[in-house]
Amino acid sequence: MPELSAQDAGPVVAAFDFDGTLTRRDTFTVFLARGLGWPRFVWALLRCSPWLVAYALRIVPNNIAKGKLMQATLAGRSLAEIDGWAAQWLAKDFPGQLREDAMAHLARHREAGHCCVMVSASPDIYLKQVARQLGFDALLCTEMEVTGEAEARRLTGRMRTPNCHGEQKVVRLRDWAAGRFGAAGLEGVTLYAYGDTSGDKPMLRLARYAWYRGEPWTG
Q: Is the pLDDT reported for residue 59 higher than 80?
C-alpha cells in the first residue's frame, strides 16, 4: 500500500466512496432485500424493471431508476421500521463485507489525525450508523425525505437531496469543505480520494492523491 505523504500542507482530508470501495459489493440492494424479505424485494424489482432496464441500457440516468426503486420499497415506511432494517443488515450482512486494503487506508488516515469523510450515493437511512461505526468524521450521501413528527415520522420514498453520484459528489464535498474550513474550502486542504466506479472519478480528479479500485490513479 502506498505511503501517505509526510509533506502534506494544511488540513488533510481523506474522502472514501463506500459501495465497492470500502465494501466488496453494493450494499443498498442487500439492505432492501434484508428489510423487505426476498419475495417482496423481487416483486419491487419487477415493478421497477422498465426503469432499471432503461438505466442498464443508458437510456435513463442513475437518479431516475434509483428514485423509482426507492419509491417502490421505502415510501410510507416509518423510521422505526427502517432502523430495525439497518440493525438487521449491520448484524447479518455487513460483517465480512469490508475490504481489508481500503480499511487499512482508512485506519492509517485516522491514525495520522486526518479528517475522514464518507461520500456515497447510498442513502443516509443506514449509512449514518455505518459511518459512525467506522469512525468517519463526516458523512456526505443521498439523504431521504421524511414527513411527520416524533414517532410518526415516515419516509416519502423521495430523495431530500440530489443523488450523491458523479459530479454531485464534488458539489457536496465542496460545500462541506467550505463549512468546515472556511472560504478556502478544498483549495486549502490536501485531499486524498478513494473510489471504484466512473461515478467516483469527478471526486478523484479533485484529489492530490487518488486511488481507483485499490491502485494509484492519475486520471
A: yes
pLDDT grade, residue 78 (50/70/90)?
very high
**Average pLDDT in the 30-46 region?**
96
* Structural domains of the chain ordered from first start: 12-217 (3.40.50.1000)
- Which three three-digit cell numbers place residue 211? 486511488
Q: Are strands 138-142 and 144-147 parallel, antiparallel or unpaired?
A: unpaired
Contact 22, 98 (CB under 8 A): yes
**Closest by Cα among 168, 175, 218 to 193:** 218
- Tell me the C-alpha distance between 44 and 33, whole Å: 10
How is the chain split among helix, strand and coil, in percent rounded to 5? 50, 20, 30
d(CA 144, CA 158): 6
Cα dihedral sign, 163-168-169-175: negative
The verdict on pTM exceeding 0.90 is yes
State pLDDT tens for residues 111-162. 999 999 999 999 999 999 999 999 999 999 999 999 998 778 999 999 999 9
Under 8 Å between Cβ of 45 and 145: no
Q: Confirm if 16 and 102 have CB atoms less than 8 A apart.
A: yes
**Contact in structure between 187 and 207 (CB atoms under 8 Å):** no
> What does R_g of the chain's alpha carbons equal in angstroms?
18
Distance CA 110, CA 14 (A): 9
Query: Rounded to the nearest 5 degrees, what angle is found at the Cα of 200, between the Cα atoms of 49 and 7?
Result: 165
Closest listed residue to residue 117, CA positions, set 106, 125, 126: 106
